[in-house]
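Sequence in, structure out.
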Amino acid sequence: MPILPSNKKDNSLQSLEARARTTFAAARIESIKLVEEVDAHINSAQTTLARIKELHEANCPDWSARLQSNEENIYALCAAYSPLFDDVVHQRIQSVDTMKAIAHASEVEMRKSRRRLMENAKARLDGARERHKV
């Protein structure tokens, strides 16, 4: 008995539907696996973060104690070397004052020198004018 063309279309349509169902079923299975894997990774990350937080909280008091100890050591050193710092400060103040005096003296000398140069230049110009007039 010959198969009519319409039956062929029905068979191909049925096979297409079967393939689509199979493909969708495989996609569902893959998506379920993916969701499970993502959940596992999220749980693992949360566990790791919780462990890191616990370690951090456990070490914080230790850090605080270390900082306190270091601060006490720094204050002890400053107290021990305080006279040295005071001497250095006085020496620094004295050297700054000396440099200010030198700068001021040099400024006065520069003004005097500039005045002499201007007077000499004026005298030369006046002399050149006199010679030019004659």
